[in-house]
Amino acid sequence: MKTKQHHFVGGIWKDLPSELNAAESQLVLVFGSSQVIVKPEIYDHLRSVYPTADIVFASTAGEILDEMVYDDSAVVTAIQFEKTTTRCVKTNIKHHANSFDTGVFLMDKLAAEGLSCVFIISDGTFINGSELVSGLNQHNKYNVPVTGGLAGDAARFEKTFTGINEVPSQGNVIAIGFYGDSIKVGHGSVGGWDEFGQERTITKSNKNILFEIDGDNALDLYKKYLGDYVNELPGSALLFPLSIRVNGDEKNLVRTILSIDEEQKSMTFAGNLPEGSKVRLMKANFDKIIEASSKAAESAFEDINNSKPDLALLVSCVGRKLILQERTDEEIEAAKEILGGNATITGFYSYGEISPFNESVKCELHNQTMTITTFTEV
């Protein structure tokens, strides 16, 4: 596997040195700000450089290049596989009844002998991420790992853009299938948040909208724990996500609050919260959040038998970036220390991360995690 990276920043293309043959590159990943990647000249330039590759776009809440995080730019990673083949499928949420059916459609289209893994680039505003991953799991015929993320739009939460082989637009979900025995894939997803308070039960919810916990109004209960942060809602909610355990599962997922409704006394989360689920409040621990990046990298590293990865795709949550602020680069640096200097590193800050729990194949929607997927050709 060979890679080549480009960085479009300040209106100028910066090309990193590489031995990749552009004419033989099969896949190009473009992660950038909403304002940048929708410029037609970005796609036109990349198509001229990579005439036969599938060019996949995702808008971000920050783009990752090596050990740095950037805003208002576009990070491009071209990949030339030696023995692996890829296939990309795109659909739009408006063509399906719901997000679940979207996931089913994508997995059905990729299903074929030799499928080794799937990477998802999804719209981050119109898609229900929990239902999307349920559809992906439902039709994972070959029981392969599925990872990826939901596109971002900085901290605006207004419009996200994704696309393939065209200027990106809204509502698209792209699935990239990797085929063959030569590709080895690792994955890890870790949060690093501290839980506090007693475990409680969700008693009233509607998909990703939460109304009651233990029979009491959830928003009022939440405000009670926020203290002085209550005056900074909804932004301060990123500091206090929920840990959720669904249907008696031993593993806990993390759910981030997207908005609150004072009139309905409800909270909308970036993922479903089924009634009967167990929840606990969480709070930020800066050192543990950064350490979690190392742990995610270690897990992805172990999955490929500690082989040196050729490529690492990092998908971290916008909430982590808003909390870490000037320390954001530290979680990328922590991952790179584990992955090694030979790995090409790219990725983005997202509105949701997709990955199995470390020992499972079934993928989940995560919030507030660092999720890492590693690729190695053998």
Short description:
Helix content is 22%, strand content 40%. With 378 residues, it is an alpha+beta fold.
Q: Which SSEs are present, and which pair or pack?
A:
Blueprint: E1 2-9, E2 12-15, E3 27-32, H1 34-37, H2 40-49, E4 54-59, E5 63-65, E6 68-70, E7 73-80, E8 85-92, H3 99-110, E9 115-122, H4 129-138, E10 146-150, E11 162-164, E12 172-179, E13 183-190, E14 194-206, E15 209-213, E16 216-217, H5 218-226, E17 242-245, E18 253-255, E19 257-261, E20 266-269, E21 278-283, H6 286-303, E22 311-317, H7 318-324, H8 328-339, E23 344-350, E24 352-356, E25 363-366, E26 370-377
Parallel strand pairs: 3-4, 9-10, 22-23
Antiparallel strand pairs: 1-2, 1-7, 3-7, 4-11, 5-6, 5-23, 8-12, 9-12, 10-24, 13-26, 14-15, 14-21, 15-16, 15-20, 17-18, 17-21, 19-20, 22-26, 24-25
Domain module tally: 2
The low-confidence runs, each spanning 5 or more residues with pLDDT under 50, are none
- Please give the oligomerization state of what you see: single chain
Mean pLDDT score: 93
Distance between the termini: 9 Å
Instruction: Characterize the biggest β-sheet.
Output: 8 strands, antiparallel
Q: Which structural class should the secondary elements be placed in?
A: alpha+beta
Strand content: 35-45%
Number of helices: 8
- The general outline is globular
**How helix-rich are the residues, as a percent range?**
10-25%
Tell me how many strands there are: 26
Q: How many whole angstroms does the radius of gyration measure?
A: 20 Å
